Task: structure prediction
Amino acid sequence: MSQATWKKTSNPLTPRLLRLLREAALYLLAALAAYLLIALWTYQPTDPAWSHRGPTVSVANLGGRFGAWIADVLYNLFGYTAYLFPIMIAVSGWRIYLHRRDPEIANARQRAVVWTGFLLALIGACGLASLHFGAAWARGSYRPSVSPAPRCFSSPCFSPASRCSRGSPGYG
Result:
């Protein structure tokens, strides 16, 4: 009796199904980027969200409660550089879609390098914007006391007239 042998294939999905999955990923990530962009664009500090809770029950953000919450988190952590997130999500979708022509784009190591570069650029942009613009960069004039940059970049120790080294109260 002869035994059946399985033919090993490197890719069990058909090319048509792979193309369909890539296009679906493009549309899904483009929709996610558009939703995040709309949520960031229509951010209102009075919306009930991560850092604010008050008598306002209705949400003015076009992204709904979740959009208000995610926009509040991103603005409080990254400031205006939060607008880089929708761009990176859209670029990721485009790169997945382009994989049909260039198989090297989907390499996991290359994706890790791209995302690491994005995170480093984001951290650098937060630091540079905080150093350059200071408190005026804090999401407009309605919350001048809150800096949208990470606290390590917005402390008074980074200002040229810093008195941190002389032991001023509250900064040392």
